[in-house]
Each structure stands twice: as structure tokens, then as C-alpha cells.
Amino acid sequence: MVAKNTDEMKALAVKLFQINAFKFGDYKMKVGINSPVYFDLRVIVSYPDVMQTVSDLLVAHIKDLQLSSKHVCGVPYTALPLATIVSVQQHTPMLVRRKEAKAYGTKKLIEGIYQAGDTCLIVEDVVTSGSSILDTVRDLQSEGIVVTDAVVVVDREQGGAANIAKHGVRMHSLFTLSFLLNTLHEAGHIEKATVDAVAKYIAAVQINSDGSFIGGDKSVAEANDFSRTKLTYESRANLAKSPVAKRLFNLMATKQTNLCLAADLSEADAILDMADKCGPYICLLKTHVDIVSDFSESFIVNLQALATRHNFLLMEDRKFADIGNTVSLQYGQGLYKIANWADLVTAHTLPGRSIVQGLKAALGGANSAKERGVFLLAEMSASGNLIDEKYKENSNKIATEGGDVDFVAGVVCQSADCFAFPGLIQLTPGVKIDEGVDKLGQQYQTPEHVVKERGADIGVVGRGILQASNVEKTAASYRDRLWAAYQERVAK
Ligand code: 5IU
Q1: Directed axis angle between helix 177-186 and helix 192-204, to 10°?
Q2: Which of 10, 147, 170, 242 is the most buried (most CB within 10 A)?
Q3: What pTM, to 2 d.p., does this model score?
Q4: Which ligand 1 atom is the nearest neighbour of the CA of 461?
Q5: pLDDT of the residue at 1
Q6: Do the beta carbons of residue 481 and residue 449 sit within 8 Å?
Q7: How far apart, in whole angstroms, are the C-alpha atoms of residue 284 and residue 217?
Q8: Is any atom of ligand 1 closer than 6 Å to the C-beta of 317?
Q9: Residues 152, 157, 159, 162, Cα dihedral to 10°
Q10: According to the model, what pLDDT value does residue 3 have?
Q11: CATH topology match: 6-226 vs 233-491
Q12: Which of the residues in the chain have pLDDT under 50?
């Protein structure tokens, strides 16, 4: 590591975390092993300032190490733009390795002007096993090019350096995973427990260049402590990108409740009465304001007062689904002015990313985007619903990738495989002590089942509480069962 640039390196480490160039969770890597930390440096092309800093540091690193070579070559694809900048800054000609030979013309694998015997420095973004670097080295060597060194942005410390050293290539990294973890911890972005858990995983999971285990403890990789369902709400609060998700995680942890009341009632007073009775036991109260026949501003004022008194958040389950411009109006205007009072809303992902952008566009002024969030629907509890695997996968992408992830607080879904990122909250409706189906296709699971088997972080209960003869007692009992199931789930 380049000691003299340590402050700059630390600032860059935090910046990379903030732009989602790496995140913590339970991810499947290219080599087929699960990992508690995931790097995606592809995003940096969207941040020219980060590109500049990374490439400046790479050039400084190359100078410090006195690595002189006739060419530079990036490992496709993520490192290609970085290699380009290094080439231009150092006036070192670049070579480009194709992943597939062209089907016509020269059929060359290496583009650029070179001769056998020329030297070439490799540039790579992230190294796990080193296999991608070795693929590029092999193609360069088969043209007679000599490769002795590789500069990389991040070394995951899982055996990559040793694997490529076996092929006569030295690896020089800007960052090690340990440095990134310690820096984020020092800067207050992750807990010590996160640092320790990732360190434990990395120590246990060392990988050969063919993706097989060198040794270590395979069970650590399989029982990834970073699976979101095994982390506590407190630690997930630290990983959340959305300020409202952070708030809700912390509220759940301190109030010790993961129960959401679905107050599907059509009279304002009845909702307020339920909110008061159930308030002590819930983290969230979910409304459908368009079913309230006597909706008024004072209803909202009273509901907000109860939310403050009992410490719960408000979610309007509006399930927005239109084009950006329309949802922006539906959210901010009309009779209900939802953006003025609902901490959270729900939205379908059917229209694509524009749904999130449209909602955000309604905010500003007194309704700061920092105090609002959306839960995206990735699955429904209605029997016969049309959502399929691809839809689920794409919904997850909208929730976790792109520039608006700070507005997405969670996902409404029915199963733990809907998303991996632990900074998001899984909200699961269709909860009742007696499992079964209602007359209109609603499918119910028990509190224990949704939390322990289906990955729910918050269980949504409507009629199970609303129709009980003793509402307080029933709400308390749902709270106790959902909370106990969560505690069992995270128990080591
Ligand atoms: N709701 C579901 N299922 C879903 C989604 C939302 O039940 O898949 I998305 C809402 C509908 C209702 C509440 O407001 O959750 C569940 O109420 P009951 O517990 O009364 O069924």
C-alpha cells in the first residue's frame, strides 16, 4: 500500500462504499462460493471524480514501485477504462485483450502494436482467485509478450496473489480487503462485528485459481454469517443506504417489535382506535387511505400524533404503478397528499426504475427525501398472482443498483431469496396464527414460518388482529411470536 497517500486512500475507501462499489450481504461469486462482501467496481465509470482518484493512485503506485513496462493491458471489462487512463497519463501504449476472437478479419485476441519480447503491465479491478488475471496473462504470453507484474485496485486476500505468483506474476494492490474493512469501521460506517465476521470468512475461504478450496473451513463459507437473515436489526441499520430504513431498523431493535399492523378499516375513528390500542406493540402502521370514507386532514394529524406517542412509523400501502410523472402527482397531490405524512409507501416495479425516480420527484422542501422511503413489491401473497422469477430478479436490481437506492427502504415479498442486501427490510404480509386461504385468495402463514423460513423482517398482520375479540392482547401475542422467531433466527 502507498503509505504517503493514506488519508486519500481512506477517503476513497469510504467513497467506494458510499457509491455501492462494494457491499456486505450474502452473495454468490463467480467461482460459485458465497461471500459476505461483494465488489462491483463497474459503477465507478459513473463517477468521474472516483475514476480520477483511482487512476491517479494507480499511476502513483506504479511510479513508487518503479514498474516500467512497454505496454499496459486491462483485464476485461471493468479494468479497461482504468487501464486507458493509466496508459494516457504515463504515455505507455495500451494493449486490449478480446474476450472472444473476432469471427472475421484478423481473428486476433490482442489488439495494439507489439512485438514478441515486449513487456506488459496488467491492470485489474478486484482479485479473488486471480483467475481473470491469469486468463489475460495466458493470451499475452501466447503472443510472446512478457508479463511480470499486475497492479490491482482491491485484493480480497483470498489467495489470488499466491495463485498468480505461481505463474511468475507479482501482484501489487492499492487496497486490501482488511484495509477497507478497518477504514470503514474507523469512519463509523460498519460495526466491529462486521469486520470480525468478514475477516473470519476470508481467513477460512482461500481459493485456488480454478475456484476450488485451497483448504480452510468450507462450512464457514456455506454458513455465511453475513446472510441477512442471520444479522441483527441493529447491525443491518448500519448497512442500510436509506435513512428511513436505518431509522426503522433501529426502532425495531429498541422497541423490540417487528410487527406491522395493516389497519384496513374504512372509518377514521376506527383506525385511530386501533392505532392507539396496538401502538405499543408495532413498529409500523400500514394504511390504505383510499378506503377511509371520512378521510380528513385532522385524521392524519391525529394518526401522526399516535405514531409519535407510541413510536411507530406510517406506511401508506398505495402500490404506485404508473409512469413517473403520474406517480409523482399521485404521491404529492390530490386529496391525500401522501408525501406530506407517510414515512413509507409501497410501489410496484412493473414500470421499471422510473417508479422510484417519479416518487422522489414529488419530494423536496418540508418533505425531505431523507425522511421518506419506498418498499418495492417483488412478490405478492395473493394466490395466482402473475409475478415470476425474472420479475423478482429485476425488482431486486431496481432495489439495489443505481443512483436512487438511498430511497429504497425495503422489499415487499414472501421469500428470503428475493434479495441479499442486508441494508434492505423484508416486509411480508399474509400472516395469521391460523394458516390458510381467505375467500378472496389471500394466503396466510404463521408468524414463525414467515420469519424463520421465509426471511420476513417485518410481519404484516391485518384481520388477525383487527377481528380479534381482544385487540391489545392479540397484538401483543403477534408481537411476541414474531419477535421470538426473529431472536431464534439470529441466535448463533
Ligand atoms: N398485502 C397483502 N399481500 C401482498 C401485499 C399486500 O396482503 O402481497 I404487496 C396487504 C393487503 C392488506 C394486508 O392491507 O397486506 C394484509 O391484511 P390481512 O392480514 O388482513 O390479510
Answers
A1: 170
A2: 242
A3: 0.72
A4: 19
A5: 46
A6: no
A7: 41
A8: yes
A9: 60
A10: 46
A11: no
A12: 1-3
Sequence-distant (6+) residues with CB within 8 A of 368 are none
220: CA distance to ligand 1 center in Å?
A: 37
Q: Does ligand 1 come within 6 angstroms of the Cβ of 198?
A: no
Q: Is 275 left (phi over 0), alpha (psi -120 to 50) or beta?
A: alpha
Class of domain 233-491: alpha beta
As a whole number of angstroms, the distance between CA 420 and CA 229 comes to 9
Query: 198: how many CB neighbours lie within 10 A of its CB?
Result: 22
What is the length of the chain?
Answer: 492
Please name which of 258, 269, 241 lies closest in space to residue 451, comparing C-alpha atoms: 258
* Domain segments of the chain as ranges: 6-226, 233-491
Pocket test of ligand 1: the residue of 428, 442, 443 to mutate, having most ligand atoms within 8 Å of its CB, is: 442
442 is in an annotated binding site: yes
Ligand 1 contacts CB of residue 109 (under 6 A): no
Task: Give the pLDDT confidence score for residue 34 in this predicted structure.
Answer: 74
CATH number of 6-226: 3.40.50.2020
User: Catalytic residue positions?
Assistant: 317, 319, 322
Place of cell 411476541: 480
